Protein: Glutathione S-transferase
Organism: Bradyrhizobium ottawaense
Amino acid sequence: MDLYFSPLACSMATRVALYEAGAEANYLEVDPPTKTVLSDGSDFRAVNPIGLVPTLRTDEGVVLTENAAILQYVADRFPQSGLGAAEGIERTRLHQWLCFIGTELHKGLFIPVLDRKAPQETKAYALEKNLSRLDYLDNYLKGRDFLLDHFSVADAYLVTVINWTMATPPIELAKWPNVKAYYERLRQRPSVAKAVAEEFELYKAELARKKAAA
């Protein structure tokens, strides 16, 4: 399968999940501004017209988009990994957390704050409105190692999003000690540590390319 990704973007969650599952995949880096696949110079929009990562092409040639859907596909494709959840309420809770991370944290909180073109008023409004989501998460994680009773694709997504606090100074993890402890604990997990280290190096290379082109 082929995973189209950009360094340290939300697509890193799928890399973590694939590493956790011990799955083989081709990792195809996409340059965000130009939507170019760096390995061959092709137009990524020919694969995903919206131009967003992650995008996954399965072994059967099916192209999947949307982070939550791709993560659930990986969990179902590799059930021995334990990344998913059993049918019933546990699976519904997995869906619940994927939706919460995607809407309340990823899109609701972090995207406005990370957007360099967003007005300061927009960033301030996003912080005022959505920091309460971290309060909720901090309370939930008290005494818990994971979002479910085991490491799941929801944790792969959450640790990816929390990792963005490195680039968002207004969101200081020390204010949410349970979230901070969760993040630091998961950063030590081999699949997460490997994904972060590799994508950080690719991110530095991306910055160097932009500097050279300026």
About this structure: The mean pLDDT is 97. Residues 12 and 120 are 28 Å apart (CA to CA). The two ends are 34 Å apart (CA to CA).
